[in-house]
Write a structure and sequence with these properties.
The structure holds two protein chains of two kinds. Chain A is mainly α. Chain A has one domain. Chain A contains eight helices and no strands. The longest helix of chain A has 35 residues. Helices cover 79% and strands 0% of the residues of chain B. The longest helix of chain B has 38 residues. The radius of gyration of chain B is 20 Å and the shape is globular. The chains are: A mainly alpha, B mainly alpha. Chains A and B meet through helix 1, helix 2, helix 5, helix 6 and helix 7 of A and helix 1, helix 2, helix 5, helix 6 and helix 7 of B.
Chain lengths: 176, 198
Amino acid sequence: MAWLIKLSHWCIPILLLAILGTGYYKKIKVYEVFIQGAIEGLQTTFKLMPYIIAIFTAIGLFRTSGALEWLLRLFRPVLLWLHLPPDLLTLGILKPLSGSAALGTTAELLSKYGPDSVLGMTASIIQGSCETTFYVISLYLGSVGIRDSRHLIAVGLISELAAFAMALWIGSLIGH
Amino acid sequence: MINTIWFFLIFVSIFTAVADGRLTTVSESIFKSTAHAVEFTIGLAGAIAFWSGMLKIAEVSGITRIIARLFQPLLTRLFPVLKGHRNIIGLISMTVTANLLGLGNVATPLGLKTMEELQKLNPKSERASDEICTFLSLILGGLCILPTTLIAVRAKAGSTNPGAILIPVILVSLTGTITGLTANYLLLRAHQWFRRKE
């Protein structure tokens, strides 16, 4: 395990050396080209701001107004019927909405139940294998000014649901 | 669809806040979220600018095309239209690799650069093209082989084996990605079929 983590620490320095080394070797004006790219990058970032404001505000409201709790309460009977802890659903619903909120919830669940408990493991698996659907869609489409997302939200939620179900199943295998 | 979801998120929230008598939280929450959104974007700006600069060097010096050659056999199956576009295939490969290794700060700038290139081939600029849908389905699957942040969080919580979730995460994220790509493929085919019938 340790070597894998070490490998990930090496990735960025090696990548930088490879890019700059090749560029310099091929007699490219690395500094000028870098600045040109950075300008384009900054323009993209500022185009993103309205999209990020829109998504953060809607999700912030949804959490602070108590609508999220209300939604969770709606699902509670189904969970009890399936013998699933409600805390995992909170995570499953938060994950596609907000990355930082989901990470916070995972950290909270890990300290509450222990990182190596069945619930702690399941929560970790959910956290590690689902994307923040709404953020990714609005960020990526927003950066190029696309307004019609077609079926992408459905695809995001379907893959999230498949991953969530698979995570619960693997979690139940760990428990046995 | 995003219009409906965005509308309902706000509508339901305000409705709940009114029903619970938490009226002041609405304006408080808006103030906090918008400030956070601006801070977040500005925080992101530096990393995006830096990596866009580096990517420009990679593009000009031909590194993107070398990486493309490695991934071409696999990716041209997902993106048959992009066969001749080495640069885009290279960018897609790099974005996916950065996501696989859990390098979020690099993955976002790469993904945005890929979107910019894919958008150049999009005939209707306000609507996601088939290739953009497939690319985003690939990203939304959340495929990951090294969840670095997660392992750090687990270690901080006092886990005796923080990396124990590695194999499950690979399996689960693979399931999610394959399901997402299949759903996207079927929906794209269904759309083509309906258009032909018209």
